[in-house]
Amino acid sequence: MTNELLLITLNNIDDLRSLRAFYKANGISQVLGYQTLDNYISWFEKEPQQKHIKIYTLPEVWRKSGLYMIVDRYQLMVNALDIAEAAEELRIALPQLDWSRGYKMTGVPDAHHETIYKLLTKMNLLIGIVRLHVVLKSREEALKLDVSCSSPEFDYHPLSQEEAAIVDGIWYSRGNGTLKFIERLIAYNNNMGIYLKSTGELIAWCIRCNLGLLGMLHVKDDYRGRGLAQLLVHMLSRQLAGAGEDVLTMISDQNATSQALFKKLKFEQ
């Protein structure tokens, strides 16, 4: 491999499906890469002209190592199957991205962290790190989950586009571009809200994020301790399992509440 290789954009949906198949063939060890690609492919199938999404790789490299770099507004997702080749591939590929506004990097497997950190340091970029770990419930186990809703106090249905502002308003990752990002998640991905029947107020929600993971789980303070977070996780998990998927989420090492919840719900690392 030489420095003459220039980034290409994967636009052909069949090429993207082939790339997804490489990750799926590697089973549970590459489930994060598989679900990330599966999510974006589903978006391109819904709307082929995705203005703010680019999937980059190096010519022919992706057919061997599975290298991809997905730029989605302010987010950057990076992965490769061949760890031995990835360091050199990333050394060539990463500097070719436009780093003028920076990125929030997410969905990057631990195996690539050291390589990427060294590259970004060499590029004199400021780096902030939040450690996350992935937990999983298999499709078979998720299909067994109880999703009964016995309380007459609440209604349960997907969020509306207008409610993206409510989610964005309290999201810990809120910033430039996040409102549009959440609007798109609500439009394209599985999500569920819990509402007071008496007023229609949205009091809790969970949305499948762009990595294919359960995300943005939130229950308003006055309604915590009533099992609503667990119910939301069960509802979306059953939906995803019914579509043939394992269920994943990512949890910050500092988020003891979420760690305790997903341990209770028997998600495994």
From TrEMBL:
It holds the Pfam family FR47. InterPro entries: Acyl-CoA_N-acyltransferase (IPR053225), Acyl_CoA_acyltransferase (IPR016181), GCN5-like_dom (IPR013653). It comes from the Eukaryota. Signal peptide: none annotated. Transmembrane segments: none annotated. One of its GO terms (molecular function) is acyltransferase activity, transferring groups other than amino-acyl groups. Residues 191-268 form the GCN5-related N-acetyltransferase Rv2170-like domain. This is (Mediterranean fruit fly) hypothetical protein. It comes from Ceratitis capitata.
